[in-house]
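quick one
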Amino acid sequence: MLLPIYLYGHPVLRAETEEITPDYPDLQKLIADMWETMYNSEGVGLAAPQIGKSIRLIVIDGSVLADEFPECKDSKMVLINPELDVIEDMEPVSRAEGCLSIPGVSENVKRVEHVRLNWLDENFVEHEKDFFGFLARIIQHECDHLEQTVYTDHISPIRKQLIRSKLNNISKGKVRCDYRTKAPSK
Ligand code: NI
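structure w/ nickel (II) ion:
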């Protein structure tokens, strides 16, 4: 089932998120719906707050970017209760990001592209792994969503000023989009 994607300005994107337990109702159905919603909107990641749920759940599949970023090959994964450490052993890199909750906007964000991630998969099996490059960036972007943060929070005040009217329009639902969305006012 396709779920509406909550847009920039919606309070759910700024709400605290709760850890998920194995008895969370209909979790596998929710995960399936998030996959369907993410692929339908041509995203490479989707966090639960973006579909209106304040829980610590993320789906990621950056495989479509593998030609440009080989580290994204076979990167399909469900992250439950992820814990992220940014490993600051390399210089930050500035690259363009976008977000399904902020349609029509893309801005450069400076990030260190090395993270160490602890998470549970969809079967509640625990994993720990280091990720690099653009995949590390996607993971940081999605984990930010669980911490009441969107990528435009990281851009410079000048850039933010330049996209201010776009962000205002999005938060009023005045945006053209190929997928179903939910604006704060709706
Ligand atoms: Ni996003």
